[in-house]
Design a protein that fits this description.
With 94 residues, this protein is of the alpha+beta class. The protein has a single domain (7-81), classed as Alpha-Beta Plaits. The protein has 2 helices and 5 strands; from the N terminus they run βαββαββ. It has helices spanning 22-33, 55-67; strands at 6-16, 36-41, 47-54, 73-82, 90-92. It has a 5-stranded mixed sheet with strand order 4-1-3-2-5, covered by helices on one side.
């Protein structure tokens, strides 16, 4: 199966990203850019995002995520590129 230009990134987002609506913010941004994958809080107060989509849209998604939600902020993002997984939606996990 050819991935037709689909890229995937795994992100760990550091900053004030829990308790500020960051998962909802991320889901909204994913919908805007037609990105699939998931977002979830981690026990160390970071947020994990696994996202895939066309490279151009993924770059726009990453730019918007870096800006952070209104009541939070992003200090930095650990980014790892991975092979596409074939997600068909974007989910918020607990």
């Amino acid at each position: 199966m050819e991935n037709m230009g689909i890229k995937r990134v795994h992100l760990i987002v550091h900053g004030r990203v829990q308790g500020v609506g960051f998962r909802w913010f991320t889901s909204t941004i994913a919908g805007r850019h037609n990105i699939h994958g998931f977002v979830r809080n981690l026990m160390d107060n970071t947020v994990e995002i696994d996202a895939e989509g066309p490279e151009e849209r993924l770059q726009l998604f990453l730019t918007d995520i870096q800006a952070g939600p209104r009541f939070g902020y992003v200090d930095y993002i650990e980014k790892t590129s991975l092979p596409p997984k074939g997600y068909t939606s974007f989910d918020i996990s607990r």
